Amino acid sequence: MSKKLLVMALALTMVLGLTSMAMAFDGWDQFKGTRIRFLMNNHPFTDYIKTQLPKFEEMTGIDVVLETFPEDQFRTKRLIELTGGSGSVDGFMIMPGNSGLQYNQAGWLTPLEELANNPKITSPDFSFDDFFAGTLKAGQFDGHQMTVPILSETSLLAYRKDLFEKYGVKVPTTMEELEAAAKKLTKDLDGDGKIDLYGITMRGKRAAATSQWVDFLHSFGGEWLDANGKAAVNSKEAVAATKFYGDLIRKYAPPGGTNVHFQESIAYFTQGKAAMIYDANVFKKNYEDPKGSKVAGKVGYVLIPKGPAGQVPHVSGWHLSIASNSRNKEAAWLFIQWATNYENSLGALLAGVPTARKAAWEDPKFKNNDTTPDWTAESLRGFEIGSPVWNPPVIAIGEVRDAVGLAIVAAINGEDVQAACDKAAKEMDAIIKATQK
Amino acid sequence: MPDWALIPWKVVSSFMRAGAVANKAEVKTGIWHKLFTHFDQHLNWYFPLPAILALAAIVAFPMVYNIWLSLHDWFLVSPIGPQWVGLQNYVQMFQDPKFWTTFWRMLYFIVGALAVQVPLGLLLALFLNQEFRARNLIRTIYLFPFAATPVAIALVWGMMFNPELGVLNYFLELFGLPRSLWIASEKWVIPSLILVDSWEWTPLIMIITLAGLQSLPKQPYEAAVIDGASSWQIFRYITLPLIRPTLVVATMLRSIDLIKTFDIIYVMTQGGPGEASETLYLYTYKTGFQFFHMGYGAALVVFVFALVLVFNLVLARVRR
């Protein structure tokens, strides 16, 4: 008996030993002396990975240059470098939902399967299956995986738990309940005839507003485009969604809603001027920052309430990809594998970056210190059920967002929503025709 | 100054030394002497040559390239490169309703801003032209706004304009006035932007006008006082006509700047709310750098350039 056990234990150790031997990847230093250059957005992930970079450089002997710029300049810089076609950029951060279609059409992205299927340059513990499906899918173009996700973002409805309790308001699960809650929490608290608490705050600034409006669009059953690739933003569902979104802001959000971007919206919520905010989940760190926020510790989180077509938040995210004309694709691929590995994903998560690697969220180091478990649970649910379509699936994203943004502004101003959506659809079709020949 | 910056001067001075040596030796036929004479006679060309080359590289080339680009159709993120379309972009421009709305909006902004800044600048200059204690200190203080970074200014004003959290509405309420939406209102956004621009740039008009005032001759004033003219008459019939050319110069300079106003608008409203503050210059930026229509964007730039050129020609006329 004990002998049998011993044999089994021995066999087990051998098998485990073999596996771990197979898992060990000795190709890290094969590109010693290579220099690779990545363009990075100024983002908490970049800040984190910079602190870890010496480990990678020591392990591989690859000299990594991370050129970091604030988001606007980052986009411009990336575009200029890639248009120039000098091949001196090896990789870059990208939001596939934002520039993926453009970059793929221009031929600037590298299909990654070939690199990932090559055991000489791919560590055996790398697998695309370890990332959230919705996020991963956002990086697929023409049937190829063009990116590796770093982090996932979705939008959450954040609400003031204390106020909901005080005024007996139910946390909204449907659109009707959302409006009822917003209405009930728009209040004149000190009795001077002026409203000093607003029910909700959301983005109303033209193009910027489309990022959260799109969740209402989908939850009401609308789409950006119909099956024939024509604009569908004037469908019955889209008009209803736009009207609902505009009415919420006009009636229950602080005045001047059409000039509200996320900065203003966050300020209203963190200064206690609004009882709810619907925006990206990453802004939790602003709401919960005891230095800048008056509402830290009083905030609850849920996904978008159910609409006529269900509950459809969006998933977006930052990814890493390799430039198609890079001369150091293999070395760049090593860097991407390392930057998105378990250790770094967990490290980034602990630094506040909602990593796209599923397993890191289960790590006790994260779980045991999680102060907002409802945020975590709802975010993770959003990553699974969310739609990767948050920007219009067209090449000229900026232009279309600007056109549709005007319809949202019209809805906020209480103008004729059908007419505004018709106009936006017409403009959208013209833009698509001019840019997608 | 770094050493390399002195190289042109070293070359020139060695030529001159060589020339001097050649002269002294009275060897009037040597190669050094020829070179020196050539150099000496065409000094007016050689001295500005480095500057001309640098200007050609950083000013003339982009300008010519831009005009070339404006004759092409080029959607930056498409695999197709620039396609020759002739004057198509210009035809499109004059038929583009957005071009016209943004153009008229820009004019509204310019005229509004000048209507505030020129009279105010003149009044400030007249005030600061008088003798009183701490005059220099006050002059210096007035210059602060335009020494500050426009983006920083825009960020601060943007916060002050916030209808709920901003300090401006707080003051309005303190005086019992109704709140305003400021830059969040389609009606008030341009006047609010004019307010910011005037806060920043009126001092420039003031300083130019003040310089003009201080260079005015004394005699007409003495004569007027002897003739018993009132101070209003002195201002109306002596100061104003004499200062007029200076005011025109200041106005032209401001006009050119106002056409190109970008930073404060972009930071505070990005052309919003809706499109209520999208001026021609913002539309141009969006067309090129956000929507990537490089050819059409270049055509818009050429139009703005032509507009600035007209103002510059008027300016040159007045100065002469």
Low-confidence stretches of chain B: none
Largest sheet of chain B: 2 strands, antiparallel
Q: Write down the CATH topology of the largest domain in chain A.
A: D-Maltodextrin-Binding Protein, domain 2
How many structural domains in the coordinates of chain B? 2
Structure in words:
The complex is a heterodimer of chains A (437) and B (320). By secondary structure, chain A is of the alpha+beta class. Chain A has two domains: 29-153 and 316-385, Periplasmic binding protein-like II (D-Maltodextrin-Binding Protein, domain 2); 169-314 and 390-435, D-Maltodextrin-Binding Protein, domain 2. Chain A contains 18 helices and ten strands. In chain A, strands 2-1-3-10-6 form a five-stranded mixed sheet. In chain A, helix 9 crosses helix 10. The model of chain A is unreliable at 15-23 (pLDDT under 50). Chain B has helices at 7-24, 31-41, 43-46, 49-70, 88-95, 97-128, 135-147, 150-161, 167-174, 189-214, 219-226, 231-259, 263-268, 280-290, 294-319, and strands at 72-73, 83-84. Chain B is globular, with a radius of gyration of 27 Å. With 320 residues, chain B is mostly helical. The interface between A and B is medium-sized, with 34 and 28 residues.
Comma- or semicolon-separated keywords:
heterodimer, A: 437 residues, alpha+beta, D-Maltodextrin-Binding Protein, domain 2, 2 domains, five-stranded mixed beta sheet, three-stranded antiparallel beta sheet, 10 strands, B: 320 residues, mainly alpha, MetI-like fold, two-stranded antiparallel ribbon, 2 strands, 73% helix
Topology:
The complex is a heterodimer of chains A (437) and B (320).
Chain A: H1 2-23, E1 35-41, H2 44-60, E2 63-69, H3 71-84, E3 91-94, H4 96-105, H5 113-116, H6 133-138, E4 140-141, E5 144-145, E6 148-153, E7 155-160, H7 161-166, H8 175-184, H9 206-219, H10 236-252, H11 262-270, E8 276-280, H12 284-287, E9 299-302, E10 316-322, H13 329-339, H14 342-350, H15 364-367, H16 373-385, H17 397-412, H18 417-435
Parallel strand pairs in A: 1-2, 1-3
Antiparallel strand pairs in A: 3-10, 4-5, 6-10, 7-8, 7-9
Chain B: H1 7-24, H2 31-41, H3 43-46, H4 49-70, E1 72-73, E2 83-84, H5 88-95, H6 97-128, H7 135-147, H8 150-161, H9 167-174, H10 189-214, H11 219-226, H12 231-259, H13 263-268, H14 280-290, H15 294-319
Helix pairs in contact in B: 1-2, 4-15, 5-15, 6-10, 6-12, 6-14, 7-10, 10-12, 12-15, 14-15
